[in-house]
Amino acid sequence: MRKSSVMVASAVLASAALGVGPAYGASGNGAQQEPFYKSNSLCTGPIFDTSGPTFGFAMTKENTAQNTITTEVSLKHVAPNSTYTVRLIQTPSGADCRTFEAVTVTTNSQGNGNAHWTEPKLPGTTGAFVIVNNAANFSDNFYDTPDYVFGVK
Predict the structure, then answer these.
(1) What pLDDT does 47 receive?
(2) What is the CATH number for 106?
(3) For residues 25 and 153, is the Cβ–Cβ distance under 8 A?
(4) Which of 64, 71, 92, 103 is at a distance of 20 to 30 A from 81, taking alpha carbons?
(5) What is the pTM of this model?
């Protein structure tokens, strides 16, 4: 395998909730901000081009006290007025890759949208990544974040 209750929130609230910084990478409070890249993602294919454009970001955080993983998704400049499914994939197993949570993001007329998701941490999980894809066109419009290994900056 490769690396890796919906609440729609404003980008400001999502950013504040996990301490989003101005650049990608470590962002405080144990959260990690990773950019979305165009992908062919079925959990086995590579991200197309990590030097290319990004399409927003996901903030991912492990809560060891509650044994959960939380992600804040912020899509930017993707298809306007579209619904995207969100998957939080735990690594290294990727066991939940084919699990489609009931999490969606609906973009506005500029192609921007936000969502929040928390799920139980699976045994052996050391990291996670996020996949989003256009629900109306499952064969295209995939975006992935790189895998974030918890505790590594």
Answers:
(1) 66
(2) 2.60.40
(3) yes
(4) 71
(5) 0.75
